[in-house]
Design a protein that fits this description.
The protein is an all-alpha fold and 250 residues long. It has seven helices and no strands.
Length: 250
């Protein structure tokens, strides 16, 4: 009877751990899905729906969500789920922390990014290019700066969430984001006039960020059981062995 109870306990313990691992992987998978959704939204679905308005090379992504833009309604409906996926991803990163401060800070920065992204989408869109006396653009620029800070913070903290190779890759991505973000700022100066290459410069920034998000999700996806789970399993096994030895001795 004792052996049966112990086997039942071990089975329950194992099932709970597998369930937690499965949930964690689902939440991490939301990170990869969010990046795919974002890129599909800005450069596939928006382009297919409003080809005449969409321009890869000279148009900022923010212009697709500008007040009065024909693509705004579509992207609002797509980016609300995107931000929800970011929140789920943050929960998955937090669940993968296993006591590591860098991962918890990464999760917190992801939450901040998702919150600012949602607020910017709904409360701080830009006006259409060329709008005279715009009262929205200044707030939109401020929201974009804060969101960019959170993105870089996610990467800085996330650089230490895995091994040295991932850290080097992350530093390279951060450099890419900073360089092309600055370049996009320079290329945007002629607005509301023509801005050739602005869209391409910004998309290098965006695509590098989304690829990094997928890489972070993949790196944590393959992580083993948290040490706390393994320690709990080992402690139970040691107690079981000790109990068996004591019965044999008596």
């Amino acid at each position: 009877m004792g052996i049966a109870m112990q086997s039942s306990f071990f089975g329950t313990f194992r099932s709970q751990n597998i369930s937690k691992l499965g949930l964690r992987r689902i939440l991490l998978g939301c990170g990869a899905i969010s990046s795919v959704l974002y890129l599909l939204a800005i450069d596939v679905l928006a382009a297919l729906q409003h080809e005449a308005y969409h321009n890869y090379s000279s148009q900022m992504v923010s212009e697709l969500m500008a007040v009065g833009a024909p693509t705004r309604s579509l992207l609002v409906w797509l980016f609300i789920p995107y931000n929800l996926l970011i929140f789920a991803f943050a929960a998955g990163v937090w669940g993968s922390a296993d006591g590591r401060r860098s991962r918890r800070l990464t999760a917190a920065a992801l939450l901040g990014y998702g919150a600012v992204s949602t607020a910017g989408l709904l409360l701080a869109p830009m006006d259409l290019r060329g709008t005279v006396g715009s009262q929205r653009d200044a707030l939109h620029i401020a929201a974009t700066i804060v969101m960019s800070i959170f993105i870089v913070a996610v990467m800085v903290f996330g650089a230490f969430a895995h091994g040295s190779r991932f850290r080097l890759y992350t530093f390279g991505t951060i450099a890419t984001v900073i360089v092309f973000g600055a370049l996009a700022g320079v290329l945007a100066r002629p607005m509301p006039g023509p801005t050739p290459w602005l869209g391409l410069a910004e998309r290098v920034n965006v695509y590098a960020t989304m690829l990094w998000m997928v890489s972070l999700a993949a790196s944590l996806w393959s992580a083993p059981f948290p040490a706390s789970m393994v320690a709990g399993k080992q402690t139970w096994q040691e107690e079981r062995q000790a109990s068996s030895a004591e019965r044999s001795f008596t």
